[in-house]
Each structure stands twice: as C-alpha cells, then as structure tokens.
User: Which sequence fits this backbone?
C-alpha cells in the first residue's frame, strides 16, 4: 500500500480545510452567510476539491462539489444584489 500523498491529494486537503474553516466561521458566528470571506472560502475550497477529484475521481464527491460551487455562486450573486 502506497501511503505517500501526491500533489492532487494535498490540493484536496487544502480545499477541505477551506470548506471546514468556512463552516467553523459560520457556526461560531464570526461571519454571516453574506460575508465575502465565507463565500470565497467555500468557492475556493470546492474548486480545489474538484481539481483533486479530477485525478482521484469519486462520482459522489465530484457531484457534491459541483452543487457546492453552484450554490455558493448563487449566494454570492444574491449578496451582491442586496448590497446594491
């Protein structure tokens, strides 16, 4: 069994850390769902996870990240509309 991690696995870990940190920030009420840091952490995290999944493919994980990106972009658009 190969236990060495390749670059794509590290990219995936970084993406996971972004998403988990965003979740922690929202749960600890340090940010709101409209704060750009929350939205960008979710978007960047999901994109990094997708990059990792392009090499280490898992259909379920890939689909959830596609939806995560779509929902995050929707939230970003809604927040921008409310700010105008």
Assistant:
């Amino acid at each position: 069994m190969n236990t060495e991690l390749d670059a794509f696995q590290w990219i995936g870990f970084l993406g996971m850390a972004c998403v988990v940190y965003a979740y922690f920030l929202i749960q600890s009420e340090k940010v709101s769902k409209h704060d750009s840091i929350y939205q960008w952490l979710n978007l960047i995290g999901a994109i990094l996870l997708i990059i990792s999944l392009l090499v280490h493919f898992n259909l379920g994980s890939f689909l959830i990240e596609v939806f995560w990106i779509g929902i995050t972009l929707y939230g970003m658009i809604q927040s921008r509309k409310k700010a105008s």
